[in-house]
Design brief:
heterodimer; A: about 375 residues; alpha/beta; abc type-2 transporter like fold; six-stranded mixed sheet; 15 helices; 6 strands; elongated; B: about 325 residues; Rossmann fold; Alpha-Beta Plaits; 2 domains; 12 helices; about 40% helix; about 25% strand
């Protein structure tokens, strides 16, 4: 126990002496949070739109005006030729084509219904979906205004050769959305807890691996191994400082989230910190495990980023888990990041209590215990 | 301490196909300064790692201070001092912080170890607030020695402590080792420098995982089997070629600015051989020739042993 104290003192001494590491630890998280949370968003604005108006009526101009008036669509081209518009989409200068057929206004007046063709560049599927729902909503509103029905005929276009069959939109039901827990559907409220998880994970696993591998590279690990320091003491002395730093990072992150992004914090912060403690056991465990299988800091860095990339992308951070294939949803059950992200969002945005997130807590505990257990075992095996 | 500080018995260690140590055996006497001498790749570092409990031998056994290196590793770790070949302290910690840290993990303090490290610490003290990474090579090595000694070990393992250190610092370092030896410490030191071998009480000559000979340096040198001449000429390169063509040559190799020539005959006497070589060189039009009979030193013996390992193993046995 006394030896652990000396080792801890040495670790903190080294951490607080290294200005680069200090900066990485306490300033980078804030900057990353500010940059990422503002930049990572699913919103689509300023869609470049080509208009092929074959009708030249006040009604057809009204369609274009209402789209443009939303602020999301910017008419950049207007021609009589579908081919010209297609060319513009192919070279990427427009993301969307609106085709208003001849006789549009006449049909609206006589039959009270008409069609408009909307063609979207579906190269970025998520963005195309968002554009489509915006455009449909705007057209529906315009239909109401003119007292007639306008049916959008939608094409998602990957390339002119692989054009999908047109989807006929039938406004049979009127759908009204109301978002609970995040009424304004503010992406930042949703993203910030997730980004906090990324930061804590990177600090936890990357620094742990780098820190131990650095001792390996410097030869100090051998030197320590010829002292009466036991493996367990050594591991504890490595994990405790990095665990505390990750917790401090989480605290800083939460303060920024509250003060800068006004992320609601409905649930118990204590619950968040308890969950983070458990979660970090796994994150630090991964760092420890990696330190046993690599020889240099470069290898450690590469391995951590490869692993994190997979875990982050499959953790429901950027894309909803429910949209993933079944096997990926199963994999997410074993992914600590998925549980911690879900728990953070649930506690912060919904105010969930211990009972509501008990499943996530249990999963985090089991995963954390397994990962840390395996890593410690591996560490014991890899050195004498 | 009645037990022998170190007994190595038929230790063998393989790394995949490479045999790093092959049936290595020797032992140390109390308060002995024992040298492991041999070129890079001889297996010295592997042996150190086994003796300091960092590696397990494939076969054979070794005891340090009467303790088995495999079974009693924790007891050994508390009582040995180890200085690896590479500088292995924390470059971002100061001299004093490094020293205090290594003292504390052994459950002691700088003050308690002060007496042991006094001769070195006096030289280090002016730099005690300097970061270890910013020290000169010689100072780093002294700090490493201090850290290996601060817990007052009963045996000291020094793996190539003087590699990359200037000549003056090397001499100082060996003087220090003499001081520690005089205080009763057993020291195992490895080196690739032959001139340092002569400063050891006994040495084990090693090559490619084999121990070629174990004895006092003077005895190993005296066991050299051939008459030996130091030959000097203006053109060393031509001289080497010509001497190698001499019918009675055993070996010729460069040694400083001279060549060491050994003769395959033993009966004519070294002075007679010197005269013959002198007249032979005269017939070959070599200018600036000086030929002197010399006593073999340990390096000559080592070169001879390395050239014919099987012969040497027999001789050692």
């Amino acid at each position: 126990m006394r030896v652990l104290g000396f080792l801890l003192r040495k670790e903190f001494l080294q951490i607080f002496r290294d200005r680069t590491i200090l900066g990485m630890l306490f300033i980078m998280p804030v900057i990353q949070l500010l940059v990422l949370a503002n930049a990572v968003t699913f919103e689509v604005t300023s869609v470049r739109m080509a208009v092929v108006d074959m009708d030249h009526s006040s009604m057809s101009r009204g369609v274009v005006t209402s789209l443009a008036a939303s602020g999301r669509f910017v008419p950049v081209e207007s021609s009589q030729s579908q081919a010209l518009a297609d060319g513009a989409m192919l070279d990427g200068s427009v993301n969307m084509i609106v085709v208003i057929p001849e006789g549009f206004a006449r049909k609206l007046e006589t039959m009270r219904r008409a069609q408009v063709q909307l063609i979207f560049d579906a190269e970025d599927g998520a963005a195309a979906g968002v554009m489509r729902s915006y455009a449909s909503a705007i057209l529906a509103q315009y239909s109401l205004d003119v007292g007639a029905q306008i049916f959008p005929v939608v094409s998602m276009r990957l390339s002119p050769a692989a054009e999908r069959a047109p989807v006929r939109g039938r406004p049979v039901l009127e759908v009204r959305h109301r978002g609970w827990y995040n009424p304004a559907l503010d992406y930042r409220e949703y993203m910030v807890p997730g980004i906090l998880v990324i930061l804590v994970t990177i600090v936890g696993s990357l620094l742990t691996a780098m820190n131990i591998v650095r001792e390996k590279e410097a030869g100090t690990l051998d030197q320590l191994n010829v002292t009466p320091i036991t493996r367990t003491t050594f591991i504890a002395a490595k994990l405790i400082p990095l665990w505390s730093i990750a917790m401090v990072d989480l605290m800083i992150g939460l303060v920024v989230a509250r003060l800068v992004f006004h992320v609601p914090m409905l649930g118990s912060l204590l619950l968040i910190f308890v969950a983070a403690t458990i979660y970090l056991a796994g994150a630090l465990g991964i760092g420890l495990w990696i330190s046993t299988v690599v020889e240099t800091q470069q290898q450690a860095m590469f391995l951590i980023f490869s692993l994190l990339m997979v875990y982050l992308l499959m953790g429901g951070l950027f894309t909803p888990l429910r949209g993933m294939p079944v096997w990926a949803q199963w994999a997410a059950d074993l992914n600590p990041i998925a549980h911690f992200v879900a728990l953070m969002r649930s506690v912060l945005l919904k105010g969930s209590g211990v009972r509501d997130v008990a499943g996530h807590l249990l999963a985090l505990t089991v995963i954390g215990a397994c990962v840390l257990g395996i890593a410690v075992r591996q560490y014991h095996k890899s050195s004498r | 301490m009645s037990a022998q500080p170190l007994v190595v018995d038929a230790v063998t260690k393989r790394f995949d196909a490479t045999v790093a140590l092959d049936q290595v055996s020797f032992d140390m006497r109390p308060a002995e300064l024992f040298g492991l001498v041999g070129p890079d790749g001889a297996g010295k570092t592997t042996l150190f790692r086994i003796l300091t409990t960092l590696l397990v031998p494939d076969s054979g056994s070794a005891t340090v201070l009467g303790l088995d290196v495999v079974k009693d590793l924790w007891a050994i770790r508390a009582r040995v001092g180890y200085m690896p070949g590479r500088f292995s302290l924390y470059p971002d910690l100061s001299v004093e912080e490094n020293l205090r840290f290594f003292a504390s993990v052994f459950g002691t303090s700088i003050d308690e170890g002060r007496e042991m490290i006094e001769p070195i610490y006096n030289q280090l003290e002016p730099f005690k607030d300097r970061r270890a990474g910013a020290l000169s090579g010689g100072m780093k090595q002294k700090l490493a020695l201090c850290c290996a000694l601060v817990h007052r070990p009963d045996i000291l393992f020094l793996d190539e402590p003087t590699t990359g250190v200037d000549a003056v610092s090397r001499r100082e370092f060996w003087d220090l080792l003499d001081t520690f030896k005089a205080s009763g410490l057993s020291i195992l030191v490895s080196t690739a420098y032959m001139d340092e071998a002569t400063r050891c009480d006994r040495v084990a000559l090693m090559q490619q995982g084999h121990v070629l000979a174990v004895d006092r340096p003077s005895v190993i040198a005296a066991r050299y089997p051939h008459p030996l001449l130091a030959v000097h000429a203006t053109e060393r390169h031509a001289l080497l070629r010509i001497l190698r063509s001499y019918p009675h040559v055993a070996s010729v190799y460069p040694f400083g600015d001279k060549l060491h020539y050994s003769d395959s005959r033993t009966d004519p006497g070294v002075d007679a051989i010197a005269a013959e070589v002198r007249s032979f060189l005269a017939t070959q039009n070599v200018s600036g020739v000086r030929v002197e009979p010399i006593a073999p030193n340990i390096e000559d013996a080592f070169m001879e042993l390395m050239g014919a390992p099987e012969k040497l193993i027999q001789a050692a046995a």
